[in-house]
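Weekly structure sync, notes
Attendees: PL (lead), two postdocs, one rotation student
Agenda item 3: pending single-chain targets
PL asked that the sequence for the first pending target be pasted directly into the notes so everyone works from the same version. It is reproduced below exactly as submitted, 207 residues in total.
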Amino acid sequence: MKDINKLNYGSILSEVSHYRVVSIGGEYVEMVHDESGDRVKLSPSYIKGFLQSADEVIQTFMVTKEDKKDGTPGIRSIFEGINGPEVFTVCFKKQDTPKSKKKLQEEIATIADEFAKRIDFVKTQKMGVAEAAKSYFTSLVNNPILPYEEGEERVLRGYKIQFTSRDGRYDCVDMDIERNEKEAGIRPVNLNTLLWIVLNGVKYVVQ
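Predicted structure, written out during the meeting:
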């Protein structure tokens, strides 16, 4: 309401706000209003009746990435289905970082050297060379040299500001980032790398 003098009996209002708790005690909970930065005090009854939490977990469900054939939504659909201002906590993997050619060659050389040393040791001990080579090869197949560094896990608590996407990336406001003139606190979340999400009291975990 920009002009309180225009407020009349029967006027209809709505509220879209996000808050971060800074103090709990007495009859009110003190919070920072995310959109304005102002400090406000809300009663526990108001919080319980009208606000959603990004942290509260009442129940947990194991889900798949994609929707199941029986119609059960996967985590991609759950995240895409957030079409309003509700807050959530989401864990996803950051983008993989390609390794330099030099680093990749160094890793290959190290493994080759380890293999050669292992074979030499087996020979001196008069053990089965073929069996040792098989064991080493199996280990390499199960743990291959990747041409990239896997992205680390990232947790974001906030809300969406982008609701459609062609590549699966959605801009979200990270409410744990202190914002200023140079930092808007907006970070992309890639729904293709989601690991879990807490939404409206439910934690959905990719199995």
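Discussion points:
- Residues 97-148 form one domain.
- The longest helix spans residues 101-124.
Action: rotation student to compare against the earlier draft before next sync.
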